[in-house]
Design brief:
Layout lengths: L11 H4 L5 H12 L2 H5 L1 H7 L6 H26 L3 H4 L8 H30 L19 E2 L1 H9 L3 E3 L2 E3 L1 H6 L2 H5 L4 E2 H10 L14 H18 L3 H11 L2 H14 L4 H9 L9 H14 L6 H6 L8 H34 L10 H13 L5 H34 L7 H15 L8 H12 L2 H31 L3 H4 L1 H24 L5 E2 L2 E2 L2 H28 L8 H8 L8 E3 L14 E3 L8
Helix pairs in contact: 2-13, 2-18, 2-20, 4-18, 5-16, 5-18, 5-23, 5-25, 7-12, 7-20, 7-22, 7-23, 7-26, 11-19, 12-20, 12-21, 13-20, 14-18, 14-20, 15-18, 16-25, 18-19, 19-20, 22-26, 23-25, 23-26
């Protein structure tokens, strides 16, 4: 049957196991705590009511994030397989595993390029002065604005434009300057768009490769390769640094940030509650989306990490640690970011709302602009971009481990050639990522990010929740958890049963509907993507969802070779685990005579005999 595992009798040890549970927890934290915690959550919190946003956010953590996180990790640990292998528990729905791998594959391609920008900025942070300081560079335009250069002019009530100070009499001779000066672009933004990206006018205008970004992108993939060359034996050690050091940098930046003028105003702006916004559906939709995407549910990566656990590991404990750690990191990052934005607003004598940014605009435009006004700007720039790099790189190699696990579970003989297989996968994605290193690369990154990790990810998770709750069965899931940790968690399992069967699916359905209702054609920096690009985006979004019924139909067709019965009997047969292909590897048990019993036991219901 297509997609079934050929490694049914392999032991957990042959796949590899964590040396200790600290490695697993740190790997999970490294996977879920990424760039979005720093450059998305603070902004989402701010625009949705500040401190009041924590109410819907917390509710969504409990009702959506935690249940799905627990469900995926539990299934991964119990089955000791990657996504494709886990969903062999219901072969007709095994396409869920393929869907996860496709979504992960799309994300890994462009995410590496974003990480490479951090490497590039880390390198140029050693320059003095910083290359984005001032407007006297060849990449700058007449609209470039530098607060440092403009300050002497503006202190004397002048207007600074095109590196020239215009006093009142000059403005009478050149009245157009006053209007032009209202539409300036910061020096850091011009550096990012015109020099680092070399951004073209449209997605159609691919232009030439940016070789400095190509070099940084290649370096990213080499680092990823070295981190995962021996699987969790290497990545499990790397996360001791990559998952913990960003917290040290965040703490350093926080201490520096709160000492800046205007920092308190920025933090007040971040947390000042606006309870009226809680009446808006969009706030609840944003809270659900933030929780869902920040925990990495639906990619299969966390499921794969859990598959390397020992069978009796207390997975519920680890789930709570990681989920709480992820949320606290997001909240703390907001203090760091808004203390800096408060300083930026103070320097420009504007409201904090006028300088608020998110995403790449925060990381590669707003923050670089701020550090030019700090003592020893090279130090603060390097620390910030090192933090971004570390936040991104462990998420990246966890995603790669997810795809490799799927390959090795399906083709166990390839495991003996793991370095070569890993090199081939990393090399292929590095080469395919050259598209993102062109002058139109930013448009392709936006296209992939907008369509490749939106509603299709939520849809895949919704099908996953329904299949495990209603087809495979919540009772079976809870029985497996009981077997692993020794008890049925939280009110004898009733808490999780109600969430998995009813509340979480309803909320996931609401998120899908919300995303579709709120959908608008993709645009970037005022540029609306052409129809062919939007169509390609929809193809990217639909493909991971479409693969679920396609794999189901293929498995149904293949079942004619081994099952003789009516169509309904065949469908029922395909919803149950196949004892020949989906077996759970438990620790060796002993019988009453002290002899070791067989460790390969069937998980789930007994399959209907042909």
């Amino acid at each position: 049957m297509s997609g079934t595992l050929r490694e049914s009798r392999d032991s957990r040890a042959s796949r590899g196991q964590w040396s200790n549970q600290v490695e697993f927890v740190l790997s999970c934290l490294g996977s879920v705590v990424g760039l979005g915690n720093v450059w998305r959550f603070p902004y989402i919190c701010f625009i949705n009511g500040g401190g009041a946003f924590l109410i819907p956010y917390t509710i969504m953590v409990v009702a959506v994030g935690l249940p799905m996180f627990f469900l995926e990790l539990s299934m991964g640990q119990y089955a000791a397989r990657g996504p494709i292998g886990v969903y062999a528990c219901s072969p007709i729905f095994q396409g869920i595993g393929y869907s996860m791998i496709l979504i992960c594959l799309v994300g890994s391609g462009y995410y590496a390029t974003v990480i490479s920008w951090s490497i590039y900025y880390m390198v140029v942070s050693f320059f003095s002065p910083l290359p984005w300081e001032g407007c006297g560079h060849p990449h700058n335009t007449q609209d470039c604005y530098s607060k440092t250069e403009a300050k002497p002019c503006e202190d004397n009530n002048g207007t600074w434009y095109n590196q020239t100070c215009y006093n009142i009499s000059d403005l009478m001779l050149h009245p157009q300057v006053k209007n032009l000066s209202l539409h300036t672009v910061s020096a850091s933004e011009e550096y990012f768009n015109n020099f680092v990206l070399g951004k073209s006018a449209s997605i159609d205008d691919v232009g030439t490769l940016k070789w400095d970004i190509v070099l940084a992108n290649t370096a990213t993939w080499i680092i990823v390769f070295l981190c995962i060359i021996k699987g969790i034996r290497t990545s499990g050690k790397v996360v001791y640094f990559t998952a913990t050091f960003p917290y040290i940098i965040l703490l350093i930046l926080f201490i520096r940030g709160i000492t800046l003028d205007g920092a308190i105003d920025g933090i007040k702006f971040y947390l000042l509650p606006d309870f009226e916004k809680l009446l808006k559906p969009k706030v609840w939709g944003d809270a659900a989306g933030q929780v869902f995407f920040s925990l990495g549910v639906g990619y299969g990566s966390i499921l794969t990490l859990a598959s390397y656990n020992k069978f009796h590991n207390n997975i519920l404990r680890d789930v709570i640690i990681v989920a709480v750690g992820n949320s606290l990191t997001s909240l703390f990052a907001g203090f760091v970011i808004f203390s800096i934005l408060g300083f930026m607003a103070h320097e420009q004598n504007v409201l904090v709302s006028d300088v608020v940014a998110s995403g790449a605009g925060l990381a590669f435009v707003a923050y670089p602009e701020v550090v030019t006004r700090l003592p020893v700007p090279q130090l603060w720039a390097f620390l910030f971009f090192l933090m971004l790099f570390l936040l991104g790189i462990d998420s990246q190699f966890v995603g790669m481990e997810n795809m490799l696990a799927a390959l090795f579970d399906a083709y166990p003989k390839w495991r003996r050639h793991k370095p070569w297989v890993t090199a081939a996968l990393c090399g292929s994605l590095c080469v395919s990522g050259l598209l993102f290193c062109t002058r139109a690369g930013i448009y392709w990154i936006e296209l992939m990010g907008y369509y490749g990790s939106g509603w299709c990810l939520v849809m895949a998770a919704l099908v996953e929740c329904l299949v495990l709750s209603w087809v495979y069965g919540v009772d079976q899931v809870l029985a497996g958890i009981h077997e692993m940790i020794g008890y049925r968690p939280t009110c004898n399992g009733w808490y999780w049963l109600i969430l998995w069967k009813y509340i979480t699916p309803v909320l996931l359905t609401a998120i899908v509907i919300f995303n579709l209702v709120q959908f608008s054609p993709l645009d970037y920096d005022g540029y609306v993507f052409p129809p062919w690009a939007q169509a390609l985006g929809w193809l990217i979004a639909v493909l991971p969802v479409a693969v679920i019924p396609v794999v189901g139909l293929y498995n149904y067709w293949q079942s004619y070779k081994v099952f003789k019965g009516s169509k309904m009997e065949r469908l029922r047969w395909l919803t149950h685990p196949d004892p020949a292909t989906w077996r759970v590897v438990r620790p060796p048990a002993t019988n009453q005579q002290g002899e070791e019993a067989s460790e390969d036991l069937l998980m789930g219901q007994t399959k209907i005999n042909p």
